[in-house]
Amino acid sequence: DTAVSQTPKYLVTQMGNDKSIKCEQNLGHDTMYWYKQDSKKFLKIMFSYNNKELIINETVPNRFSPKSPDKAHLNLHINSLELGDSAVYFCASSVSSGGLYNEQFFGPGTRLTVL
Amino acid sequence: KNQVEQSPQSLIILEGKNCTLQCNYTVSPFSNLRWYKQDTGRGPVSLTIMTFSENTKSNGRYTATLDADTKQSSLHITASQLSDSASYICVVRRYGGATNKLIFGTGTLLAVQP
Question: pLDDT tens for residues B31-48?
Answer without folding.
Answer: 899 999 999 989 999 999
